[in-house]
Amino acid sequence: MATPVMDKVEAEAASSPYITATFRIRRFNPEVAAEAYWEDFQVEIDPKERVLDALHKIKWDMDGTLTFRRSCAHGICGSDAMRINGRNRLACKTLIKDLAPEKPITVEPIKGLTVQKDLIVDMEPFFQAYRDVMPFLVSHGNEPTRERLQSAADRERFDDTTKCILCAACTSSCPVYWNDGQYFGPAAIVNAHRFIFDSRDEAGEQRLEILNDKDGVWRCRTTFNCTDACPRGIEVTKAIQEVKRALITRRF
C-alpha cells in the first residue's frame, strides 16, 4: 500500500515541469583531434527555458570544456548565433519546447566560417566584410551648427536595416558564402543599405562601387535563406534587391 509520503513524491514528480532532453553537440578541439565529433548530453530542464540555459547547465555542471560565445543573453548582442536543429538561430531566443525536445536537439557552429573550438567560429572575415562597406555616416563639409534633420519618410526608407545586430546568422546561412568566403555576404550588404539610403549620407556612390565588385551584391542568388535566418526579422533579400536596383538606376 502506498504511503502518504510516497503519494506526495509521485504527485510532485507528475506535476514537475522538467523534462530530460538530449542535446547532441558538435565538438571540436584542435589541440586534441583534427576532426570534429558529436557528443550527447542528457539535460534535465524546463522546456520553457532556452537552448542557452541548457548550454549553461552543460558547461557549469557536466563539462566545463564546452566552449561557446554569449554575452547579453537577450537577443541584442548577437554573439550566440549557432545552428540548432539545422537552422541558424540565437541560442538565447530559442525555446526548448519549440524544438520537439522528445528528439535529440542538435547544436553546431554556424557554417562558412572556420571553427576554432566547439561552437566558436572565426568571425574576422565576417567583420572585415562589414568594415569594407564603410558602415558609418559620411558627410562632408564643416561641422554642422544644428542637427541634421530627417523626415519620417526618409528614415523609413532604411529603417528595417538598422535592426542588424551582426550575429552572422544571415551570412552563414547563405550557400554562396559557404562555397566562397570572398563574397561580402548578406550582413555586409544590409549594413551598406542602411547608409546608402540614408538621406544624410554622401557616400552612397562609393559604397555602390564597392558592392559592384565580382564578390559583391551580384553574387546573391535570392534563395531567401538569409531572410529566414534573421533573428530580428529583417527583410534581408529585399534589401539586397534594392541595392542591386540602385546600382542599375543609380537612384537612391
The tally of domains stands at 2
Spatial order of strands in the largest sheet: 2-1-5-3-4
Task: State the low-pLDDT regions, or none.
Answer: none
What is the makeup of the main sheet?
Answer: 5 strands, mixed
Q: Ends: how far apart? A: 80 Å
SS field, number of helical segments: 9
- As for the CATH topology of the largest domain, it is Fumarate Reductase Iron-sulfur Protein, Chain B, domain 2
Proportion of beta-strand residues:
5-15%
Question: What is Rg?
Answer: 23 Å
> SSE order, as H and E?
HEEHEEEEEHHHHHHH
Average pLDDT over all residues: 93
How many beta-strand runs? 7
Could you explain how this protein is built, in words?
This protein has 252 residues and is α+β, with helices and mostly antiparallel strands. It is 32% helix and 14% strand. The chain contains 9 helices and 7 strands. The protein has a 5-stranded mixed sheet with strand order 2-1-5-3-4, with helices on one face. The longest helix has 14 residues, at 236-249.
Summarize the structure.
This protein has 9 helices and 7 strands; from the N terminus they run H-E-E-H-E-E-E-E-E-H-H-H-H-H-H-H.
